Amino acid sequence: MQATCLYVDDDPTQLSLMAKTLCHEYHVLTASSPARALEILKEHNAHVIMVDYMMPEMTGIDLIEKAREIRPEAIFVVISAYSDREYILDSIKRGHVFDYIFKPWRRSELIKVLENAFTLYQQRQIKAEQLRSLKEERDALALKAEELDQVRTEKEKLSLALQSYLTPEDPEEDGRVLLENIERAKKLSLKETLKKAEGNISEAARMLDLPVSTLYYRLKKYGLLQEKSTGSNGRTYQSGICTDVSDVDGSA
């Protein structure tokens, strides 16, 4: 990137001399008045701005204050024919002026000041870009943190709801209901197996991988067998597959 300099001076001779001196190293803009300088800065970006201190409309320091509102990132240099440096040093202390040069200036001195000024400009631009990048990363992290907070909040809500479901006001009552549900499920399972075995208890026992005697015991326990008399030999049992679902709701 070629450095662009703006030089402001009410002396046309000085403007011409400055332009010829720096034309090989820099892109040089010139203004013969502070008002014209402010117009140029609204249209063009100047990296380094050099101003004559004493001008009819306003001093160079006053111009710098106005120019900073348009190009706050620019580096400012004061060129003066006056040996009293107090006013310039005060602006340097406030950070508004980078350096100063006295007239008549020497080319070597001028080039050195401009090189340092342009280097400072580049450093500030790099820092500004790094700062923008850090702010973008910070904003992205803040967004992620907000999303995580929302997920965490939803998780806490679900945990509280689950805890409320698993911890009823009456633990004993809840335990009784749970056991009843388990027994009901067992009964339904036996009933479905008998249906698949078409009432054949031996086949049902094979499907459940149970001894026939154990299956008989469970069927009797859950009321899924009908008792019938066989005379003097005692009692035997036959499967009675429930066809009414309501009878499954009885106590085990």
Summarize the structure.
The chain is an alpha/beta fold. The protein has helices spanning 12-22, 34-43, 60-70, 86-93, 107-166, 171-196, 201-208, 212-221, and strands at residues 4-8, 27-31, 48-52, 75-80, 99-102, 225-229, 235-239.
What does this structure look like?
Helix 1 links the parallel strand 1 and strand 2. This protein has 252 residues and is α/β, with parallel strands linked by helices. The protein contains 8 helices and 7 strands. Helix 2 packs parallel to helix 3 and helix 7 crosses helix 8. The strands form 2 sheets. It has a 5-stranded parallel β-sheet, sandwiched between helices. Strands 6-7 form a two-stranded antiparallel ribbon. It is rod-shaped.
Please identify the structural class as seen in this structure: alpha/beta
Separation of the first and last Cα atoms:
91 Å
Query: What is the overall shape?
Result: rod-shaped
Bin the strand percentage: 5-15%
The stretches of 5 or more residues where confidence is low (pLDDT under 50) are: 227-252
Q: Give a count of the beta strands, DSSP E runs of length 2 or more.
A: 7
User: What's the arrangement of strands in the largest beta sheet?
Assistant: 2-1-3-4-5
What is the N-to-C order of secondary-structure elements (H for helix, E for strand)? EHEHEHEHEHHHHEE
User: Mean pLDDT, rounded to whole units?
Assistant: 80
Largest sheet at a glance? 5 strands, parallel
Helix content: 55-70%
Over the alpha carbons, how many angstroms does the gyration radius reach?
A: 48 Å
Separate helix tally: 8
